[in-house]
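RETRY 2/3 - previous attempt timed out on the joint model. Re-submitting the same 438-residue input unchanged.
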Amino acid sequence: MEPSMRQPLVMVDTALFTIRDERLCLILARRQEPPFAGVLALPGGFVHVEEDADTAMAARRVIRHKVGFDAPYLEQLFTFSGPARDPRGWSVSVAYYALIPLSLLDQSQVAETWPAEALPPLPFDHSQIVAQAVERLRSKATYSSLPAFLLPGEFTMNELHRIYEQSIGARLDKASFRHKILEQGIIEALPDRFRVGAHRPAQLYRLASTALTPFERKI
Amino acid sequence: MEPSMRQPLVMVDTALFTIRDERLCLILARRQEPPFAGVLALPGGFVHVEEDADTAMAARRVIRHKVGFDAPYLEQLFTFSGPARDPRGWSVSVAYYALIPLSLLDQSQVAETWPAEALPPLPFDHSQIVAQAVERLRSKATYSSLPAFLLPGEFTMNELHRIYEQSIGARLDKASFRHKILEQGIIEALPDRFRVGAHRPAQLYRLASTALTPFERKI
DNA sequence: TGAATAGTGTCTTTAAGACACTATTCA
DNA sequence: TGAATAGTGTCTTAAAGACACTATTCA
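RETRY 2/3 succeeded.
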């Protein structure tokens, strides 16, 4: 290698999903600095070689700084690159996506949630990143426990059912869903714990594993 | 951003699959320069911001230079990063994997093929890259036309059958495989073209699409 | 008791896998 | 004609989806 060789800029960008009002939403933040200062964009920033152990840690740092909490589920999405995607020069952005239960978001002022179907115009190639993140979420939702990470620690079967429908973007039969989820064993009932309300109380469940669990077949 | 900020080194590494002697193999090349000069490794190199349009193009350039041909199927695998994976400093490697029909390899002297199950010790974090690439190949083989890209342009049903078995690493029923492949419509018969040999001639097929086609269900 | 949500049983359709069978070639 | 590969038909089992049913609560 020639040590004089010009290197690309290296950054991370994050697509942060949440569910608000029964709709799939993304968390956007106003950019503090140029380029595009004041514009809504995906939370992102440069990799800091002095403090980041790898790009995943850089993404966690960005999320913590920009929206104020740690991400319960974070996964590398894709790496975008080229001379034109950022006006500052040839750049590489390692994109991540994360799932955030809405309950975690209440304390955060900096961040705003926008429905995934009606986002404002985004700078850089952020629309492309969002499109790919939505596709990945929809795809993984059909064969893994992924959407459950959008819920708080305890939830009912019907809350889980709805979150799967919203993640996938399609209706799922109630009975079949129940059978399949229970046979996959991704959740466990909390003994004698029920959500009480206006009607018949509902059994509370929690995830059986803190890690993503893939299914044998589609949900 | 602070323009003075130290940036990571940016490189690409490629896991190149082929089938030789009915076994899944990887193409390795001896490193020409330090570090690890003379050692077998995945073909890789730095991104050249003056000539590469993006990291995928950098990967294509590396493949062309190191093994002498263009890759028929190339896909981004994962981005590896950190201060320790390369002795030259904090680095980001965008890893790609590609499928190469053995017929393309004959002219190449620089490259050697090694069975995926019995690779020599590899420098950097290349073993990790290989492990992840094998996992991706096995996984995609179960629900897409991916393994067909390991074959030359024309092939018989049984050649396709064997290449799926070798990619997935499991036995597949001959009749079921035939039914599913034909109902997926990923291949088309070449009218009146047969592979003749010692026994009953076999219908020749080709891929219906030059792009990867995902299946509705597992093969 | 009726409205609303929670939870279950069962039937039909469709796919997956096993396996046995027929077909065509060459030596 | 027998060995080897090519290609097909059918039966059994299991899963997916639809849908109707029962259960429990509150107003």
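Helices of chain B lie at 55-67, 126-141, 157-168, 174-184. Closing ticket.
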